[in-house]
């Protein structure tokens, strides 16, 4: 495999993906860091089963005894996302978790832009951060043609 400053090739003329620039990697780390901080806080409040979380989960129709389960599942997905070797798997699992949040918000008729679509916004941050910092993601999701 040969490399040029921004393109990796496996055969003559077959570009696989542009390697992330230093600025893109930093931007990806910042986006991913924001995702991690938010989800870490969210998972820990579920695990701690704080009153506000118990109330919110009950209002959404969930048995508050499931709070710790939600928190642990989110923490496992987040851990996989943070580890470079499993970051893509973590992003896929976080996407599924966020899809459940969208479905819950739709069923409970939450406001569309501010609440129902909020998990989709976080999904963009999850994948955007990973895309900016990880060559493997750029290879499977080539958003820019070379």
Automatic annotation (TrEMBL):
Record's signal peptide: none
Keywords: Membrane, Transmembrane, Transmembrane helix
Membrane topology summary: Multi-pass membrane protein
Top-level lineage group: Bacteria
Keyword match Transcription regulation: no
Cellular component aspect of the GO annotation: membrane
Membrane-crossing residue ranges in chain numbering: 26-48, 69-92, 112-132
Main location: membrane
Full protein name: DoxX-like family protein
Source species of the chain: Rhodococcus maanshanensis
